[in-house]
Amino acid sequence: MTELITGLDLVHLQIRIAAGEKLPFTQEDVSIRGHAIECRIYAEDPDNNYFPAPARLLAAGAIGTGHPSDSGMYEGWNVPIDYDPLLAKLIGYGSDRDQAISRLTRALSEYFVGGIKTNISCFGASCAIRISGLPT
């Protein structure tokens, strides 16, 4: 998220600082460009109090293109019950908040996870409410 709106890779910078380097810029040098919104996709069952829903992943990924995401899931992976059921992080980025929400809504509608229950539908509903103009 920070990388999208500032162009800065915080993890890389943290490693450099841990190695004893100083930041190559000041706070005043950092500028914000646009808006980014992240949805964390979990193997959870919204109809069962968001209880973890481990299972074998049949298929996963974005149907469309151009949606930043971060995921380690793959077809055939068994989502374990012993760990955090995070599957992916999907990001909507735009020049303003409305464009970011619109792009995230599209990304969510094009994202597919087969074989397990997820919380994707909850995000779609939240974005639809925001786009409708209702207060959030």
Name the descriptors.
136 residues, alpha+beta, two-stranded antiparallel sheet
Question: What does the model show?
Answer:
The chain is α+β, with helices and mostly antiparallel strands and 136 residues long. It has four helices and seven strands, in the order ααββββββαβα. Strand 2 and strand 3 (51-52) form a beta hairpin. Helix 3 (97-110) runs antiparallel to helix 4. It is globular. The model has no long low-confidence stretch (mean pLDDT 84).
Question: TL;DR of this structure?
Answer:
With 136 residues, the chain is of the alpha+beta class.
Number of contiguous helices: 4
Strand order of the largest sheet: 1-6-5
Q: Tally of extended strands?
A: 7
Mean pLDDT: 84
What is the share of helical residues?
Answer: 25-40%
Shape: globular
Strand content: 15-25%
Quick one: biggest sheet? 3 strands, antiparallel
Distance between the termini: 21 Å
Question: What is Rg?
Answer: 17 Å
Instruction: Classify the secondary structure makeup into a structural class.
Output: alpha+beta
Given as residue ranges, the uncertain stretches (5+ residues, pLDDT < 50) are: none
* Pattern of helices and strands: HHEEEEEEHEH
List the helices and strands and how they pair.
Layout (H helix, E strand, L loop, with lengths): L1 H5 L3 H9 L16 E8 L1 E2 L5 E2 L6 E4 L6 E3 L14 E9 L2 H14 E4 L5 H13 L4
